[in-house]
Design a protein that fits this description.
Length: 571
Amino acid sequence: MKAQHHLIRPLGFLSALALLAALVSAPVSAHAQEETLGSDPTVRSQERTSAITDPVLQIGADERTRNLSWMSESGGGGEIRWAKASELEGRDLPADAKRATTTESGLSTDLKRHYNHASMTGLEPDTEYVYQVGSEEDGFSSVAQFDTGTAGGDSEFLVFGDPQIGAGGGNPDDATGWNRTLTSALGTAQDPRLVYSLGDQVNSADDQGQYEEYLAPEATTTVPQATTIGNHDVASKSHEQHFNRPNVSSDHGEGGAITSGGDYWFIDSGVLFININSNSHDTDEHAEFIDEVVKEHGDEARWKVLGFHHSIYSTATHNSDPDVKKLREAIPPVAARNDIDLVVSGHDHIYNRTFLMDSEGKKVGDSDAGFEQEKEEGQTMYLTLTSSSGSKYYDYVPGLEWEAKSVHNDTPTFTRVRVSDEALQATTYEVPAGGAQEPEAQAASEKIDDVEITRAGNDVPETEADSGSDTAEAGGTTETDGTNESDGTTETHGTNETDGTTAGVEAGAQANATSAASSSGATSANVGSDADAGDLPRTGTQLGVPIIVGATAIIIGAVLLFVSRRWRSLR
């Protein structure tokens, strides 16, 4: 009995220790955190936002709409809150901020989190807005800000080839390269309407970590995106979950039970964008979709741009693939009868511009490699964009009949497309490596190609968007169109040489670089965002370890406590 007495205190101590371990290991809900953190709003905001990740601002069904997607720890109850930036109350949205609940949500493909889609509607032109996404259970993201831009007039958008985060295996670092190229593009452009990514956002379709790195630049929350499904994106529903695309067709280019898909379209600044899922080989289905969209909405647009992942006119090795050959037979007649002005694609990790091409996929007789390209109705130009992160390139195939300009320097690029009633001007820049820690230093990119598409006789189509628009509001592009950036075509067109200067960068590019870097992750551009994001939250299967440890500790503690009390009763 004396020996039992000596065991009582150690057992009591062990039981208390086990119960304490259980309390430390057990996860705490977002609401419990809020209740125990006191009245410091900064601390409470940091804790409450940890359950919300991967928010991304996207183009909407019309210019008065912006779509959002995000990942959350909990399912259900998700919403967007938004207001004009002028209505901010300190770092908080006003109490009467507009709200919209999720239109679609569910368990993510990795079974660890939940995806959420919702839309902001009724937005006014030329207005700055702020927004948050989240739920009462998980809390809300930091406040982010965006500008709707001027309706009508001149505008521009940015186009990127395969970021393919993960293709380099960390050497080189694709995430750093993608951030550097995006930063450079935003420092070069002037208030771009949107970022257009042409597929293979990630290397592995179901890798959540790669999506997190693709979405890491804060510009993904401030500049609307439009994305394309690449062959590296298609093999999972993750692309559909991460991107809330507008006007998606349920029966054209659709995906399968575990694959992403869907052709879609939208109109922005008088440009009709049509995007098809070229992983679907049903070219008749794609043709029907393009025909229907142009028939219903072509009169609303001054220009038409078609995007898909698999380039049909590249100057690299994929140009001879069977699926690419099939697309090359199918797309030109559809593009011609719908008067598609520009087709943009990726996939082959090389830069190429074609001549103006006709309905049979042949070079238009008098088309050349120069800057000025005057098109007749039914003629189309095709651009192939190379990697925008810099870890993967393909070999150049010379002598192809459609090649007007090809650049294969194994350097990341982006293309800046400026839009006016009279012309589409596509200027492509390389972003040299280096400056990884200071991506804003890369704003002065090197121009490698420049082309301007106009219509024969300046035949500008009358569109609904033109009525009442004030073309004097040029969104800041008046200084750039028709400047020396359009000159020097002898040096820059039809060769593989760069101009070796920063002539392609407007005088204001360096001034814009710092703010662009902030928007893309060099510094924080979000209103009220945290300077240090801290650790990722415990989510999904990541909760398994603390839950198991906590439960085990509780059971051990309870057993030890029971034994110690039994021995006390036997004394």
